Amino acid sequence: MKNPRVGRPLHSRAVEELPGVTCFLPEGVPPSRLRNVVLSVDEVEALRLADLDGLYHADAAEKMKVSRQTFGRIIKSARKKVADALVGGKTICIEGGKIEGLCLTGETEETAVCICLHCGYEQPHVPGVPCRTANCPQCGKMLIRKGRHSRVD
Q: How many angstroms separate the CA atoms of 141 and 125, rounded?
């Protein structure tokens, strides 16, 4: 039996702000027919930097603290998901993702908190323990890490 493939460890991906809205619903699709597309926080950040701010991939990658190749993979995945949702009339939801060690400007292990993007629940971050290993006790969604000073509307 072959050994399971082991990937490289994830590096911190810097995100300036967490999204204030976490779900977008298409109009005119019956609830029984709705399907979800899930974007991660780092995919939304990549869309913001490349498509909204118009940065070159190398500059956007530098801001996110990833390689240009990694940024290219993140943005390609995000764009495919958005296109799938728009063409297929699917809901776009923003949830966790590959955000181990999420870095917001000025954050340290001591000032970070784990937050639920869906209901706003917050709890202190335990240094060395990834937030994404815990689910929100109020709504059951994945928790992500953010700095205490960062704004979530």
A: 16
